[in-house]
User: Fold this.
Amino acid sequence: MKVRKRSGEIEEFDRSKTRTAVMRAGASSEEADGIVDRLVPTLYEGISTEEIYRRIRAMLNARTAIRYGLKKAILALGPDGRNFETLIYRLFQAMGYQAKVRETVQGRCLTHEVDVMMEKDQKRYMVECKFHNSLALKCAVQTALYTYGRFLDVDAACDLQCPYLVTNTRFSSDVVKYADCVCMTLIGWNYPEQAGLEYLVERYRLYPVTMLDLRKSEIRTLLEKDMVLVTDVLERREDVIRSLGRDAAQRAFEAAETIRGL
Assistant:
């Protein structure tokens, strides 16, 4: 059975890969087997991975469906990278760093707007966030080279530790090889294993507001008010009411409580 990926590539349907993706969302081994068993007879030659995603999500319970949709929810923070930068800034704060987002820093040669500058145990770090608008795209080695070049200029003036490169998709093999060579820390989708972006978002429960079951226009309004996380909706209730009106705000609160209870 051939399936069509988001990139347009054609590949064989991989039952084990699909099963693993369902289990990563929180389904048990038995539940994942059952879902794949129900899915396979509905497939057809050339089906898109997007359609497979929709069919699987419809089979999951509400809790697991939300987690299964995390990758797309982060993608929906676009189209530019600003909201993704805020998510990563909040993530490092939750990890115990003193952090600032979109910080203007004078390097040895140039002035830079660094996505995240942070400090912990009297050591300073810089973070470059690379947001992709397509899940089919991988973070390319050019981004790693650019990040390290900026790091060298800022490091000369600020005495930094190793740079971080964070993306919402995956890294090319060249990025991984280069980062290992220059001691650059990478965080991406399912990378490093058991410590990738999806793992950290789950661990610190920093679910993006785009996971809420609201109209797209309502989600955009919340993002424009710098409410990037589900917790922002619950902590800034008056702002939500002023922005959305009471009826829509009530729906937002109920959806946020559901996700907070995961």
Notes: The mean pLDDT is 93. The domain at 82-204 is CATH 3.40.1350.10 (Trna Endonuclease; Chain: A, domain 1). Residues 47 and 245 are 41 Å apart (CA to CA). Residues 141-158 form the longest helix (18 residues).
